[in-house]
Amino acid sequence: METVVSGIRSTGNLHLGNYFGALRNFVKMQHTERCFFFIADYHSLTTHPDPNMLHVNVKNVLSEYLAAGLDPEAATIYVQSDVPEVAELSLLLSMHAYVGELERTASFKDKIRKHADNVNIGLLSYPVLMAADILQHRATRVPVGKDQEQHLELTRRFARRFNQLYQVEFFPECQPYTFGGNLVKIPGLDGNGKMGKSEGNGIFLSDTDEAIRKKVMKAVTDSGPTAPDSPMPEVIANLFTLLKAVSTEDTVRHFTNLWNRCEIRYGDLKKQLAEDMIKVVAPIRTRIQDIIGDDAYLSRVVKQGAEKARESSSRTLSDVRRIMGIKPF
């Protein structure tokens, strides 16, 4: 049985990119693997979120995790800050992480370019904390997107460095989890890149039907095909990727044929896409509304998750302290 670890930052609501990219697979794997799913509130602090909203965001993401099908009886679901061992392990790992290699990460370069007024140590050491998230459970598989592959490689490097320095075979070298194939990349509605919270181009699991319709109808398109069977530009290919994710094969075939015959009407395509997205989102949204109002249930879930996560992480931390020579009198 593999040990799988995955987390999501508590910076906002989950969207269809999260759902089709990983969440649906998490629901399946939680019954066959040893899974740890956490809400990364420590990581979100690098952007200095509103302290009045931090707990609200955690609660939202937790409710959406559960509404999407994660089962606290099958998987360990917890809030990162409820497991203090991860902070100590991150500190210990940082003793063998070098400033140069952290400064060279693509995500750090991107962040300091966009937010030159907030280049904090937490941002620089983000990959170390991420490594601690993974290594505290000695995970063998980590579902990550393309943008996190470099961080995962650093996690393997830190594990190798620790093992070599102390001449042990303690930390496994985790591998990316692709669910038996390539992860589904759900594009945004703006025609560029993937769907994301910060880009403002997403359909969220908590969106109302009307909000979904408005967003989809504003999706970027072009003037239409100019010749039969012409290749699709990226903005249109993105719409068809979304259609394939939420619609039936017959629907996809219908609009593909219209495109190939130069008969497509983007308004009709968007209306169909919106209604099919609503079919996916509406039942999840209903479950979110039921769950988010049950504070007693949410409290039980995170308390149970923290206990299970701490049992795992405390064993790892105890061994790491011993290996590094930190011993009680």
> How far apart are the first and last residues' alpha carbons, in Å?
38 Å
CATH architecture of the largest domain, by name, is: 3-Layer(aba) Sandwich
Largest sheet: 3 strands, parallel
Mean pLDDT: 90
Helix content: 55-70%
Class from secondary-structure proportions: mainly alpha
Overall 3D shape: globular
Q: What's the name of the CATH homologous superfamily of the largest domain?
A: HUPs
Count of separate structural domains: 2
Secondary-structure element order, N to C: EHEHHEHHHHHEHEHHHHH
**Share of β-strand residues:** 5-15%
- The count of β-strands is 5
The name of the CATH topology of the largest domain is: Rossmann fold
CATH level 1 name of the largest domain: Alpha Beta
The helix tally amounts to 14
Rounded radius of gyration (Å): 22 Å
Can you tell me the residue ranges where pLDDT is under 50 for at least 5 consecutive residues?
none
Could you give the order of strands across the largest sheet?
Answer: 1-2-3
